[in-house]
Amino acid sequence: MRAVYATDLSAAIETAIGSQTCLECLQRYGIDAIDLVTVTSPNVTTGMPGSDVGGRTKQALARQRRLLEDEGFTVETHVLRGTPHRRINGLADRVNADLIIVGSRGQSPLEQRFIGGTARNVARTAVRPLLVQRIVEGEKEPEVANEHLFQRVLYATDFSENAERAFDEFEQLQSATEEATLLHVAPPERRAGSEGDTDADAEAQLAELADRLESLGIETRTVVRAGEAADEILAAEEEFDPTTILMGSRGQGPIRRLLLGSTSETVTARARSNVLLVPPSKTR
To answer: Are strands 274-278 and 130-137 parallel, antiparallel or unpaired?
Structure first.
């Protein structure tokens, strides 16, 4: 399987690429080939007298390539010019990537954490599964928020077709995931007894999904909540401490290809965990 790994050549991204545990998790997911891509601004001129931007870019990319190759990945490097999210998604389509990986650095204090512009725009336009990897400021240098990327997964579902597509990711995650929490959030007005026993229906559907994961050797719990979806997903994150939140994102028309739904965007922006987003379009 192939991943497109976006890098801005920063110390933060190098921390993620240099984490042996993170890379082992990607291998357990099935990734064995990586297209490492950096996108430069079309306004940056590498040929100006005294400028060595191109040389520094190639050196930094080569250093990150070696980190990946030392862990057994087959690596291709790409230096592209243009709008980052367009070039990243375009490369993913061209190489038929199974996964896109972008880093997202948080801002302190924790309640003011926001997803970076490039990561947000990749998420809005990607038609392939996207892993938003959290990188936080450590005491001395950046750190990955969760080295064991997929060890504990919080899967949020509304039982839609797109949510089912996201659930299918467990086929790739089974060797990397030890524990899963399956969460359904019903709107506040649809509590049990209001329109039939909707909580019982949701619990039954979650139980079926849990049985499938248990057969894969993944310890699973199910949770049904009522409230605003994003708020309850983030509350469940605080309670169960997942390393990754898995959810689907819905398309809103063919012209823009994919806009994050309000729930997906809010969770991706505010979560402390990694987020694995699965779009509704064909991804394989």
So the answer is: antiparallel
Q: Tokens 């080939």 map to which residue?
A: 33
R_g (Cα) of the chain, nearest Å:
19
pLDDT, average across residues 265-270: 85
Domains annotated for the chain, with CATH where assigned, are 2-144 (3.40.50.620), 152-244 (3.40.50.620)
* Tokens encoding 95: 């190489």
Contacts of 251 (CB under 8 A, 6+ apart): 257, 258, 259, 279, 280, 281
φ/ψ of residue 74, rounded to 5: -85, 125
Comparing 140 with 16, the larger pLDDT belongs to: 16
Q: Is the pTM of this model over 0.70?
A: yes
Cα–Cα distance measured from residue 90 to residue 83, given in angstroms and rounded to the nearest whole number? 11
Average pLDDT over residues 242-248: 94
Residue 245 has pLDDT above 90, yes or no: yes
Listing DSSP states for 96-132 in one string gives T-SEEEEEEE--SSGGG----HHHHHHHHH-SS-EEE
Instruction: Give the Cα separation of 207 and 212 in Å (integer).
Output: 9
